[in-house]
Design brief:
19% strand, 527 residues, 14 helices, binds NADP nicotinamide-adenine-dinucleotide phosphate
Length: 527
């Protein structure tokens, strides 16, 4: 049952006097439950509990944390159809997508469980003492990664499960040993509450401390701002707009003790389409890209919002084919009336810019909150001069830039803001002739896709989901895959400690049998 209350640790609480409802975008009607926005007292209680929980949670073994994470996955599955129906009624997304995203969420939780159960992720590094070193003795130093403390995770509008309540950020933080306070996304508060109930059940079943997880309702910026400014919060995870992420980053930087904000924000994901490939494969590429631009109503952070090629008959032919293909696709519902309004507004702002030509705009009748896919074209020179054209239009929108020549293509890529991904479409060894363009692209993005589409983010250790600002606030980290755990930890050294007082990860006998660097050699052997 969905109560509309906040989870302050294990306790349901509704002390505030502000409420809101979620909206079913398909019917454009409000869903039933009144969600009570967390008040100042509840925010404080959640953070105080998290601080207290940190002291014991941080000492849990990898196996204990793994049991907790696996239990969360089990409890999410046990929510069964209620979760799927709630997800669909709050997002307008189809059942298949809901089930797929649940699978991804479960997969992420179990991947982190395996990581911490095995244990080597802490990067244990041991350099033994050399007491008779001249002129000074060398001390015994042992380093490993330790959790930062309570972290705040902002639920993402476009991933109600995989990047919200028990999504990637939360799973990674819990795996690291950090209690989590979720700032629930107001568009899918019911889904958030159900998933929170699963986390709380799992915490109780596996003996985790009260406060290891809280879920706070919010509509308006107050709850998020208070959490980011709270002195006991040690880091923040966010997925959403550049405006929102930047506001939180600035707020965190102004604190007496600044803290890291790991925000994954907007991206237009440039796709470079080289001439030979366009000449030889325009029909296939047009079909593929029509799908990629419109999938999920364009509400993916890796949506291809910018296609770049060299002007000429072949590229014009591709644009024509892409225009024809993209309108063959039935429009779909966006996540929320506010998202579709933002889409229409941002699209219109782009279209109003001088020199922009609408190649195609879906014109037939569509349902309420459905998005019309749109393709626009612009000359390279105009794109270079007008940086307003470089901004994300979140939705099924893409801009095709017709470059004069390779040099202009290089200049455009070099002048782009940071991006999550870049894509190169090339035939045979064509790419070898464009080395400077490829090098420029690598400077601007976190991942380059070769002859594919940027949509569809595989969850695996080698995935890099994050790029130079403003794609993310810290390009050294990924928001997807097990390495995202590194956002929630810091390195810590023990110098000259007696063996029996060291954590198990650093003891001579290596009781956890983990891989460690011992005097620069990677080994599982005892010291
Ligand atoms: P958003 O506006 O960035 O908000 C995300 C969350 O951050 C919300 O829960 C909001 O809390 C909070 N927030 C935003 N600004 C804040 C501030 N100044 N201070 C404190 N909290 C703040 O994103 P959204 O609501 O999910 O979607 C809106 C737009 O974001 C979309 O139209 C799209 O342009 C963009 N977006 C991009 C991506 C991407 O991956 N590129 C993903 C999702 C969304 P409250 O709602 O409680 O105020």
């Amino acid at each position: 049952m969905i109560t509309g209350k906040n989870y302050i640790g294990c306790t349901l609480s509704a002390k505030g006097n502000k409420t809101y409802k979620t909206i079913n975008p398909l019917t454009n009607t409000e869903n039933e439950t009144d969600f009570v926005v967390a008040n100042a007292e509840e925010i404080n209680s959640a953070v105080s509990l998290a601080k207290a929980a940190y002291i014991s949670y941080n000492k849990k073994t990898g196996l204990e944390k793994a049991a907790f994470l696996n239990a969360i996955a089990d409890e999410i599955l046990a929510l069964d159809t209620l979760l799927i129906e709630t997800y669909c009624s709050e997002s307008g997304l189809p059942q298949g997508r809901a089930e797929g995203e649940r699978g991804r969420t479960i997969g992420q939780l179990r991947a982190f469980a395996n990581l911490v159960a095995e244990g080597s992720w802490v990067n244990a590094t041991i350099d033994t003492a050399i007491p008779d070193r001249k002129p000074t003795p060398k001390p015994d130093l042992r380093k490993m990664l330790v959790p930062l403390g309570p972290v705040v995770v902002f639920g993402a509008s476009n991933f109600p499960l995989a990047f919200s309540t028990a999504g990637g950020d939360t799973a990674a933080a819990l795996a690291a040993g950090c209690p989590v306070i979720v700032k629930s996304h107001p568009m899918h508060a019911g889904t958030g509450e159900l998933v929170s109930s699963a986390v709380i059940k799992a915490a109780i079943k596996t003996g985790m401390p009260d406060g290891v997880f809280s879920n706070l309702n919010s509509s308006g910026n107050k709850v998020g701002e208070a959490l980011v400014q709270h002195p006991q919060v040690k880091a923040v995870g966010f997925t959403g707009s550049i405006k929102g992420g930047r506001a939180l980053l600035d707020l965190a930087a102004k604190r007496e003790e600044p803290i890291p904000v790991f925000a994954e924000m907007g991206s237009i994901n440039p796709v470079i389409m080289l001439p030979k490939a366009i000449k030889n494969r325009s029909t296939e590429l047009a079909k593929t890209y029509a799908q990629s631009i419109t999938v999920g109503s364009g509400q993916f952070c890796t949506n291809p919002g910018l296609l770049l090629g060299i002007r000429g008959a072949d590229f014009s032919d591709f644009i024509q084919k892409l225009s024809e293909e993209i309108v063959k696709i039935e429009p779909t519902c966006m996540l929320h009336p506010n998202i579709i309004q933002a889409y229409e507004k941002n699209k219109q702002t782009a279209i109003n810019q001088k020199g922009l030509v609408v190649a195609v705009d879906f014109e037939s009748e569509i349902g309420v909150n459905y998005a019309r896919q749109t393709l626009v074209t612009v000359k390279g020179e105009t794109f270079l001069q007008n940086t307003k054209l470089h901004h994300e239009v979140f939705g099924p929108f893409s801009m095709v830039v017709e470059c004069e020549n390779e040099e202009q293509l290089y200049t455009i890529i070099s002048n782009l803001e940071g991006q999550l991904t870049g894509t190169i479409i090339a035939d045979d060894n064509e790419i070898l002739n464009y080395a400077p363009v490829v090098a420029a692209l690598q400077m601007r993005v976190g991942r380059i896709i070769f002859n594919g589409v940027p949509t569809g983010v595989e969850v695996c250790p080698s995935m890099q989901h994050g790029g130079p600002y403003p794609a993310s606030t810290d390009s050294r980290f990924t928001a997807v895959g097990i390495h995202s755990i590194k956002r929630w930890v810091r390195p810590f050294s023990f110098q000259d400690w007696p063996n029996h007082l060291l954590p198990n990860e650093l003891k001579n006998e290596n009781p956890l049998n983990i891989s460690r660097s011992v005097n620069t050699i990677l080994t599982k052997k005892a010291v």
